[in-house]
Automatic annotation (TrEMBL):
GO terms for molecular function: ATP binding; protein serine/threonine kinase activity. Residues 43-323 form the Protein kinase domain. Belongs to the protein kinase superfamily. ATP binds at residue 72. The keyword Acetylation does not apply. Keywords: ATP-binding, Kinase, Nucleotide-binding, Serine/threonine-protein kinase, Transferase. It comes from Erythroxylum novogranatense. It comes from the Eukaryota. This is Protein kinase domain-containing protein.
Amino acid sequence: MGSSLSCCGKKPVDEGTNIIAGGSNHSWRIFTYKELHTATNGFSEDNKLGEGGFGSVYWGKTSDGLQIAVKKLKAMNSKAEMEFAVEVEVLGRVRHNNLLGLRGYCVGTDQRLIVYDYMPNLSLLSHLHGQFASEVQLDWKKRMKIAIGSAEGLLYLHHEVTPHIIHRDIKASNVLLDSDFEPLVADFGFAKLIPEGVSHMTTRVKGTLGYLAPEYAMWGKVSESCDVYSFGILLLEIITGRKPIEKLPGGVKRTITEWVEPLIIQGKFKDIVDPKLRGNLDERQLKQTINVAALCVQNEPDKRPTMKEVVSMLKGTYPRPKVNTRIESGKYKDEILAPDQERDNGVPEESGYGVFGAMEVPTMHDPFKRFADNRRVAKQV
């Protein structure tokens, strides 16, 4: 099938190398820079889906009609190089319907680009807190579908792929939604591959404050249980429609666990639910889901369930459902919240919105919709 130049570099690569990866059951390949430049209209601002500390993400369409999202990293340094290598390595290993698949990548002397399938419903974040929040597209059934699907993706990473993988950055912006609101966990730049027989390791803290397990945020101790904690926060976010950390009058910070714990103790489950749902939900499922979330965010890692147990409990198939009425969640120390305060004072947060970038959510747009509208106008003319 011949060869072509790899991105901006001069080393020929074999385009016939196809390795199945990702949830979309498609093979990935190496793209040329010219292909991606053309697909994104020269990385036009009109095509930009978002940007953050890592670089920018653009909507694109290949010559064969495939819609793609292209993550174009900023100028290379050792940190960015490592995250790029980790993400490509991990994406090349995983294959699950609830994990965002790798479409390809492009490597050159001063360019690093990763190509994914474009997700028309963007991220869970955009529906809970962003430009789609007022439309209330996420009813209770969709929210549970997203919760269970995301959990199944994590179960695969923790228990089925070898070596096991810890994501380390589970959050609403890293749960992307396809046209049917099927969730795909994305952004593996911080992922850790865990050798067989290793239960945990100590590492430099990565991730997003509010989702970080206490033992990881304070001491850098990372394990699969850290992802379980982050998923518990995500589950509370899905149920309540609240952010993981809220700023109260006077600049005081309150975590979602601090807000929800008194309501759980008092059994006021309906008061926990996102008001936008207007009470349209399954009460039995609500209680079970709150119980799962409370178990996931326990302060002590040993008290948290595994992702296998989480999936079973969410589906109602766990043989002995654990009952929990108290979260006993840890509270971040002031020194950990200090960097978050700096971001409030104007210091940008890197990678705040995951694979689609850390741009302000209300200004994000769906380029595919705009391009489709343009085509309709053109046809009418």
